[in-house]
Structure prediction request, 110 residues.
Amino acid sequence: FLGAPVQMLEMEAAPDLLSLFRRETTTHGRWRALHALRGVGATPVEAVGELRAALADPDGDVQAEAAGVLGDLGPAAATAVPDLEKLAAAPRGRASVAAERALRRIRGAR
Prediction:
């Protein structure tokens, strides 16, 4: 019964979480903002450019979370494929594994 109202709240939260991500100066704060954005599951496609930039964050956990959000967007995040491929080719770690998973989801192979 709460499906539509909750979905509306999630869609309203996404821009605020993206804004928080932009303003945050700490690694943990950037990660938390992306983690929360992924949790609400209502990331706007317009955020792909910003999420692509987050793939170059100096912190691997932030990179991994950004890759996860992009993967959640599926084919709508296709413009991020070159950045994800670059991250996937990096030395093994959480970020490269997340990038590989995101590439599969974007390409339609859940």
The chain is about 70% helix and 0% strand. The radius of gyration is 13 Å.
